[in-house]
Design goal:
Blueprint (H helix, E strand, L loop, with lengths): L15 H5 L36 H4 L50 E5 L3 E5 L5 H4 L6 E5 L3 E5 L3 E6 L10 E4 L12 E6 L6 E6 L5 E5 L2 H7 L9 E4 L9 E6 L5 E5 L4 E7 L5 E7 L26 E8 L5 E8 L3 E8 L4 E8 L1 H11 L12 E8 L3 H4 L12 E11 L2 E12 L2 E9 L13 E3 L6 E5 L3 E6 L9 H5 L11 E6 L6 E7 L7 E8 L2 E7 L13 H13 L5 E2 L10 H17 L12 H22 L5 H31 L8 H12 L12 H9 L4 H6 L1 H10 L5 H29 L10 E2 L2 E2 L16 H22 L8 H30 L4 H24 L6 H10 L3 H19 L6 H25 L1 H11 L5 H11 L1 H10 L4 H12 L2 H14 L4 H20 L5 H31 L6 H12 L7 H15 L6 H10 L20 H12 L5 H16 L4 H10 L4 H9 L2 H12 L25 H4 L6 H24 L2 H53 L10 H9 L1
Antiparallel strand pairs: 1-2, 2-29, 3-4, 4-5, 5-6, 7-8, 8-9, 9-10, 11-12, 12-13, 13-14, 15-16, 16-17, 17-18, 19-20, 20-21, 21-22, 23-24, 24-25, 25-26, 26-30, 27-28, 28-29, 31-32
Helix pairs in contact: 8-9, 8-10, 9-10, 9-11, 10-11, 11-16, 15-17, 16-17, 16-18, 17-18, 18-19, 19-20, 20-21, 21-22, 21-23, 22-23, 23-25, 25-26, 26-27, 27-28, 27-29, 28-29, 29-33, 31-32, 31-39, 32-33, 32-34, 33-34, 37-40
Length: about 1400
């Protein structure tokens, strides 16, 4: 038998007669001579060993290696072996009738709780139902002939525990001394009575010391005398006090039993007298004077009052002398007491030994310094005797009185109550020497407060010990691992670390009132160590272990096997065992991860012995695999270190595939039923599986069915589920080119393909979304099953749902399906397959949704890759996705699914597509209502649908906010129906419309209309239109109109406003300032236009303009180019910014005229710099201070460098001309004319309220010479640098004038002279006006005198008329 399979004890086949005859003479083993044999019977040539493997050398040796404290052959007889069927977790397959019938091998009927290459645990079915009930406690022991005894408080149950079914005819006897509530359970034992094969029953009350012995339960039961008092022998433990309790009973074979009392006393119980008659006799085993000879003679072990020593365990063994027995007692303080017993009931105290100090020192040497204190607190718990065979002991001759060496395994605990460790130690005792062979600290179990004392078993053949706790069974290898063949040991003799002995624990599941009530070794003749455990609430459990010492690699159970046990035994059935990882021992994360991935892959491919391929129900089979994958991830996460992200995703993908397959199978069943319920017809999945078989092959199954290929795919081919799904695209393309198939079949295939694709991927994505947390993936990172952030895809392998083939398929399946639906819908016989066409159209929105998810997942995954090729592909796919999504959503309207298209656009927040769909649907219904042939009923429907669209639009404003408003109103106002849409919006969506129009300055004009006509907010209308005119309008005349309308709106707002007058004027100030700027540019335009009036075309205009205004700027190429560009814009009536306007006014040439009569109309010569200052002052309040200062300095700098100061100053210095001539030249300079005009016509610019001031030449140095000064205008270096260069040249020229020519003093004098000229002009003007007033007064007086003269003439008074002429002369003089 292979090492990987654990055979159960008693697996040999038996003859039918041996099974049916419970009294068949059992084969004797060495030491069975004490049991009388029955008469020999004729034996069949077929024996119990006929069908068993040959025993190993250890089995064929005389005696067995271990007796576990019982004499050899005490139970006698062989044990019937049981066959172990192959584990099949699926439902049994109903096989067909066979021509030749063979007798099937009988199984043991046990439920496999767990099984691996090291051991197996099975729940035996024979336990009576009464003992399996919840809360029932009992003491259980085994007896000869596969009999088990269970003693409850009131009854004793005896049954054959090897039965294959639940025993319904167990012998149940009332106890003669039932235990009361709260008292300890009675003890019991099954006894073989001498030469007879009858089984006797011993019962012992733990609290009263009463004893009853029945020689034969069969005979007593058959006679009906068991209930009578005289049917058994009764007795009482001698000296039993009221405060004592029996705590243990151990068989001493023919020497009776050894009882351990709570007081510490040890009592021998014999059941027969010297003549062999039944009799109860008890006597205490007391220590006495030790003999001076023998190997224990030197040990001082005498004491009185043995009950004071705290006896914790007693074991017996048979000595080599025939008929001699030995009882050995162990105290909690690691002391041994030894008595010799014989068949007659006599006993002799032999010796005692205290090995506590030796044990403490040994443990201290093994522990770290900080843990050595725990070694002082050791407490012995139990021990077993290792009775080595004669070959091990050297074949010494056993003689009467000779001492036999003692070898034991000791169980003790160390540490404190809240943190206790358990240790096994192998001790050899010879003479006065105690040798500690080795110690094994349990790593798989740590106990705190326990309800019962742990016990130790060492079943035959002794390679594995069993430690029984109340909630766990711990298996420990007692034989050393065979390392002689280990290459590591051969290569590293000095440094090689011997592998740890095998150890593992089997825990009971908590929370189900389960507990280990006890355990007994099971005598077998196989190489497996077998024990039977009695479990409260479950029954009998057999634990069978192989020898783990033969292979170094088997020193532990691999992580893969551990996880498989937890999945297929723990999570997949109602198991009483707990498979959670406990104890100190742990597996490396890499091993756990590899194991989990391998298990998951094997489940996916059904390539594990735990999953049968003999399937009766594919649905149940897939459900089993799905549950197994769920149990896998749950167990791994709860009990092992965290797996890597990529591993968890791989586990999730495997589970997704199985979940998808479950829905695909249901779809396949529906497709089969829909086609024909009588004859099986091919479906689209048959075609796809055929392609998979053709290109990759599918493993065969042990069955023959009409849908065998499909079934093989679901059982063995799920690892290629993405291949099957992605080839739906190719199948549809073939159908598109197919000219032979009927339309009905083609449309049916398309509908089936869509259904298969959508159900599989919908299920996979839904499963991923719902179970992300179970796979340690934060659910908030996933949106519809797709990770939202590309960074979350880092270091993850390619997703199976969004591979390149899956993406291509998703793009084409939806499109091809719509094309099929449209094409066949228009055919005459479309009514024959209208149902399938409807299925295609209904399914199409879901296909598009899947396409979008696959796109997103693929794009995000590629974006997380480091390869530039992947990054480039991601960018390309992102662009394609936007276009593909738009086309797919819009195309749904063509198959009558516009509503679903809107829902998809809502889902992806695609406002542009949503707007077009809504507007398109709305327009469709409007056009339908305009149809005069439309019936009234249809008209009503259209009106209702149109009203529904209007309501939907209203809801979108609340749901999507500005995103929807922007897209919807952009679309509405972009066409020819903008006016109608504005009216409709003002009616239905007034508030969203207002928010939309006010959100962007570009919408200012429509906003002004809405504010004035609907919102009645004239203040906002005026402000927004002023801002739009100043910042957006490029046409000069339009800017002037908009500013004027803005001013008008603000004036209207002021009429009914409660706003303070000052605030109202501040609001209205901006359009007024901007209008001043417009006025300056209009003057400039008229000035330029007057000069180029006669030009034939634009080129001629520019040539004339530059000859007239650009001569002085020729020396500065960049500035001249700037001037030319901006003059052209002025002539085009384009609105200039303040900077551009300053450039034109300060760089253009200016002419000087001798008289005003010579000055042309609309001429601004001499006022250029003044206009620049006026424009700057107008916009100063809304400008950044730094920009303002730069422009102010630039205006004055260009003014100061406009003239040739060198010649003027040289002329004055040489006195070559009179001062009058020099002054006439100074008057012609730009600064003098600017000062003159400034003080004459615009003195307000120099007031305290104005931002304009006169700067000296020195204050203008450095203006517009730094990149920061002009970078906001010229962002490109090839434009900025030349302009800065020319500005710096001007700056150097001005600096020279300041330093060498004392330009600062000249400009002060120049300004003073200009002021005097202005003053003279003002005086002359005042005098002239005075004379004009005097003349007007004289004219008035003359008009008054003329009537007086006429009166004089009438009176004849010639004197009054100035006879001497004086008055006349005065009048003339005044005139």
């Amino acid at each position: 038998m292979s090492a990987s399979h654990t055979p159960e004890p008693g697996t040999e086949r038996t003859l039918r007669s041996s099974v049916r005859n419970p009294r068949r003479r059992q084969r004797q083993s060495d030491g069975d001579s004490l049991v009388a044999t029955a008469p020999r019977r004729k034996r069949s040539k077929l024996g119990e060993d006929t069908f068993t493997p040959r025993a190993n050398a250890e089995e064929t040796d005389a005696g067995s290696a271990v007796m576990n404290g019982h004499p050899r052959g005490s139970t006698g007889g062989g044990v019937r072996k049981e066959s172990t069927p192959m584990l099949d977790m699926e439902l049994p397959v109903r096989g067909g009738k066979k021509t030749v019938k063979h007798r099937a091998l009988k199984g043991d009927g046990a439920t496999v709780l767990t099984q691996n290459q090291m051991y197996s645990v099975k729940l035996l079915p024979s336990t009576p139902r009464e003992l399996r009930r919840e809360g029932v406690e009992y003491r259980g022991v085994l007896g000869a002939g596969h009999h088990a005894l269970a003693v409850t408080k009131t009854h004793a149950h005896v049954w054959d525990y090897s039965a294959h079914t639940t025993v319904s005819n167990a012998r149940v006897f009332d106890l003669p001394f039932p235990a009361r509530e709260g008292e300890a359970l009675p003890f019991g034992a099954l006894v073989i009575s001498g030469a007879s094969t009858d089984i006797g029953l011993l019962l012992l009350s733990a609290t009263t010391g009463k004893i009853v012995f029945y020689e034969s339960i069969d005979r007593a039961a058959s006679l009906g005398l068991f209930q009578e008092r005289n049917s058994g022998v009764e007795g009482t433990i001698s000296g039993f006090s009221s405060g004592e309790n029996v705590i243990d009973i151990v068989s001493a074979d023919h020497a009776g039993f050894i009882l351990t009392l709570s007081s510490g006393r040890i009592v021998q119980l014999t059941l027969r007298d010297a003549q062999g008659k039944a009799r109860i006799f008890t006597q205490p085993l007391r220590p006495g004077d030790a003999g001076s000879g023998g190997i224990f003679g030197s040990i001082k072990g005498l004491w009185s009052g043995a009950w004071k020593k705290g006896v914790t365990a007693v074991r017996t063994r048979a000595l080599d002398q025939r008929g001699q027995m030995q009882a050995i007692a162990l105290t909690e303080r690691c002391e041994l007491q030894i008595w010799d017993l014989d068949w007659s009931g006599r006993h002799e105290y032999r010796s005692s030994m205290d090995f506590r100090e030796v044990m403490v020192q040994e443990l201290k040497s093994l522990e770290s310094a900080e843990m050595q204190g725990c070694a002082e607190s050791i407490t012995a718990l139990d021990f077993v005797i290792v009775d080595k065979p004669a070959s091990v002991r050297g074949h010494e001759v056993a003689t009467l009185g000779a001492e036999q060496p003692l070898s034991i395994w000791l169980l003790f605990k160390m540490g404190y109550t809240d943190a206790q460790d358990y240790v096994l130690a192998e001790l050899s005792l010879a003479g006065d020497m105690v040798n500690i062979e080795r110690t094994l600290k349990l790593e798989s179990y740590h106990g705190g407060a326990i309800t019962q004392k742990p016990s130790l078993l060492l079943p035959k053949p002794g390679h594995t010990a069993l430690v029984i706790f109340d909630d766990a069974l711990v298996l420990v290898a007692t034989t050393e691992a065979g390392t002689s063949d280990d290459p590591n040991a051969q290569l590293h003799d000095a440094s090689y670390i011997e592998p740890h002995s095998f150890e593992d624990a089997v825990y009971l599941r908590s929370g189900r009132d389960l507990a280990l009530l006890g355990a007994c070794v099971e005598d077998t003749r196989s190489a497996h160590a077998s024990s039977i455990a009695f479990i409260k609430g479950a029954g009998l459990v057999r634990l069978s272990a192989t020898d783990p010492s033969g292979d170094v690699e088997r020193s532990r159970i691999p992580a893969k096997s551990k996880i498989e046990q937890a999945i297929f035994y723990g999570a997949m059935q109602d198991n009483i065992l707990d498979f959670g990882q406990k104890g100190d021992y742990s597996y490396a994360a890499e091993e756990v991860e590899e194991a989990a991935l391998n298990i998951s892959d094997e489940i996916l491919r059904s390539d594990t012995s735990f999953i049968s391929t003999k399937i009766t129900s594919i649905e149940a089979h897939l459900d089993y695999r799905a549950r197994a994958l769920g149990a896998l991830v749950t167990h791994v996460r709860q009990n092992y270190p965290a797996l890597s992200r990529s591993a968890m995703w791989q586990l999730l993908w495997d589970a997704e595939k199985v979940a998808a397959a479950q829905q695909m199978w249901k779809a396949f069943e529906e497709h089969k039923g829909a086609v024909s319920k009588v004859k099986r017809k091919a479906t689209v999945l048959d075609e796809l599986c055929g392609q998979l078989e053709e290109h990759h092959g599918l493993e065969t199954l042990d069955e023959t069915r009409e849908d065998d290929l499909v079934r093989r795919f679901f059982v063995k081919g799920l690892s290629r589920i993405d291949y099957v799904l992605s080839h739906i695209r190719g199948l549809l393309e073939q159908l598109q080119q197919n000219q032979t198939e009927t339309p009905e079949k083609i449309v049916r295939y398309v509908a089936e393909a869509d259904d298969l694709w959508s159900k599989a991927l919908d299920t996979a994505i839904t499963f991923r979304t719902e179970n992300a947390a179970a796979y340690n993936i934060a659910p908030e990172l996933s949106q519809d099953g797709v990770l939202g952030d590309a960074a979350d895809y880092s270091d993850l392998p390619e997703f199976w749902t969004s591979s390149r083939d899956m993406l291509k398929a998703s793009r084409h399946i939806a499109t091809l399906s719509r094309e099929f639906a449209k094409h066949y819908f228009e055919q005459e016989d479309a009514h024959n397959f209208a149902q399938h066409i409807n299925q295609i159209t209904v399914c199409n929105p879901g296909l598009i949704q899947l396409c979008c998810l696959i796109y997103k997942e693929r794009i995000n995954w590629l974006s997380a890759r480091a390869d530039q090729k992947d990054q480039s592909e991601a960018r390309t796919l992102r662009t394609n996705f936007e276009a593909e999504r738009y086309d797919q959503f819009r195309a749904l309207a063509g198959i009558g699914r516009a509503n679903e298209g809107m829902q998809l656009a809502e889902r992806y927040w695609d406002m542009q597509t949503l707007t077009e769909l809504v507007v398109g649907e709305s327009q469709y219904y409007v056009d339908e209502l305009a149809n005069s042939n439309l019936q009234e009923e249809q008209r009503t429907i259209c009106v209702d649908l149109l009203r529904g669209i209007t309501d939907r639009i209203s809801k979108y404003f609340g749901k999507f906010g500005d995103d929807w408003a922007n897209a919807f109103f952009d679309e509405a106002f972009s066409g020819s129906r903008a006016g109608l849409m504005l009216d409709e919006a003002q009616t239905h969506w007034k508030e969203p419309l207002t928010r939309y129009l006010r959100a962007e300055p570009a919408r200012a004009k429509i906003c002004w209309v809405n504010d004035v006509s609907a919102a009645k907010d004239f203040a906002h209308a005026g402000v927004v239109l002023a801002e739009a005119a100043a910042e957006q309008e490029t046409r000069l005349w339009a800017r002037k109109v908009e500013l004027s309308m803005s001013k008008l709106a603000l004036m209207a707002a002021q009429e009914g406003s409660r706003q303070p007058a000052a605030d109202a004027r501040a609001v209205a100030a901006r359009p007024e300032r901007e209008l001043k700027l417009v006025g300056v540019q209009e003057k400039l335009y008229r000035h330029l236009r007057s000069e180029v009036m006669g030009a034939l075309d634009r080129e001629a205009e520019m040539e004339i303009a530059m000859q007239r205004f650009g001569l002085k700027s020729k020396k500065s190429a960049a500035l001249q180019q700037l001037l030319e560009t901006e003059i052209e814009r002025v002539l085009d009536s384009q609105a200039l910014s303040i900077e551009e306007l300053v450039d034109v006014l300060t760089l253009m040439d200016s002419s000087v005229y001798s008289t005003e009569a010579e000055t042309p109309s609309m001429n601004i010569d001499g006022s250029e710099f003044l206009l620049a200052l006026q424009a700057l002052d107008a916009v100063a309040p809304i400008m950044e201070q730094r920009r303002f200062e730069t422009l102010l300095q630039l205006i004055w700098k260009r003014c100061y460098v406009h003239d040739d100061w060198v010649s003027l100053m040289t002329t004055q210095a040489k006195k070559v001309r009179p001062d009058a001539d020099v002054k006439s030249l100074l008057i012609q300079t730009a600064p003098w004319r600017t000062f003159y005009a400034l003080h004459k016509s615009q003195p307000s610019l120099l007031s305290d309220d104005s931002n304009i001031r006169v700067l000296s030449p020195a204050e203008c140095l450095g203006a517009a010479c730094k990149p920061a000064d002009l970078a906001y205008r010229f962002s490109e270096a090839d434009l900025l640098d030349p302009i800065l260069h020319d500005n710096k040249i001007q700056d150097e020229l001005l600096a020279g004038f300041v330093a060498d020519r004392k330009l600062n003093e000249w400009m002060r004098d120049c300004e003073d002279d200009a002021k005097r000229s202005v003053a003279e002009y003002l005086d002359d003007t005042a005098n002239l006006r005075e004379k004009e007033r005097e003349l007007e007064d004289s004219e008035e007086k003359r008009e008054e005198w003329q009537p007086g003269k006429r009166n004089g003439k009438a009176n004849g008074n010639g004197h009054l008329n100035g006879v001497n002429g004086v008055a006349q002369d005065e009048d003339v003089a005044m005139a």
